[in-house]
Amino acid sequence: MVGCHEVVFKKILDQLTPKSTKRSRKVVSIVGMGGIGKTTLAHKVYEHPSITFHFDKRAWVTISQGYSVEQMLRCLIGCVTKASSDELDEQSTGQDQLADCLHKHLIEQRYLIVIDDIGSTSTWDSVQRCFPDDNNGSCILLTSRYKKVAKYSSSGNFIINMPFLNDDESWSLYCKVFGKIEFPPKFEQIGRDIVNKCKGLPLAITVVASLSPRQRRWKKSGRMLQEV
After folding, report:
1. Of 40, 63, 142, 160, which is least surrounded by CB within 10 A?
2. Residue 61 and residue 126: Cα distance in Å, rounded?
3. What pLDDT was estimated at residue 158?
4. Which residues are CB-contacts of 175 (< 8 A; sequence separation ≥ 6)?
5. How large is the angle between the packed helices 3-16 and 167-178, nearest 10 degrees?
6. H or E element, residue 59
7. Cβ atoms within 10 A of the Cβ of 54, count?
């Protein structure tokens, strides 16, 4: 986490853990293109000590391609109840029964649900009824590549548009991943040229830095990016 992403992280924490918990359920969405750091940011929020202390129940599900609603519900129930996949297999398997089960375990609990990489409004429609609103400060955190999904799901609540890193932030991230802060001028210029081609996208910067553990490989990395 560097620069603007650290600022966004603090804003989300403030939204999820207000001083007063007597409020309706809140939906917070993080929006941005793939590789911009949505999941990394959400995971840092999810594991932060102030979050684990504030909420009674937490659950995380990532919506991969071809993921069914039943799989999604099973994953959330497993997080909330700490049940194993074998134990869940022994329970009712219908979508309505799983939805009722999740709802039952969340009633009167202050919960945080993270739905990572939600890609459609229909997915939200299929699960939102599982999340009770007991006016106790419960929250749902979504990440999505699509602003229309975030607007639909958040219903006017808090939406974060993930920014690209600027030049200084990009270089700072590269140095952190590379494990070195200062470089000879010649190699620093090569490194900055490589980073500039990543256009402020954290995933691209991280991948390039992790593939360049030695200075002698910088020139080769630079040529590869130029070809791309």
Report:
1. 40
2. 14
3. 85
4. 181
5. 90
6. strand 57-62
7. 18
Q: Among 70, 51, 44, which residue's Cα sits nearest to residue 139?
A: 51
Predicted pLDDT of residue 18: 84
Tokens standing for 76?
A: 């959330």
Apex 196 CA angle, 193 and 199, nearest 5: 160
22-26, 105-109, 197-201, range with greatest mean pLDDT: 105-109
Span 3-161: which CATH code? 3.40.50.300
Question: Residue for token digits 């553990």?
Answer: 213
How far apart are alpha carbons 187 and 192 in whole angstroms? 9
What mean pLDDT comes out for the span 162-187?
A: 81
List CB contacts of 80: < 8 A, sequence separation 6 or more.
Answer: 57, 59, 102, 105, 106, 111
Q: Where are the domains of the chain?
A: 3-161, 167-219
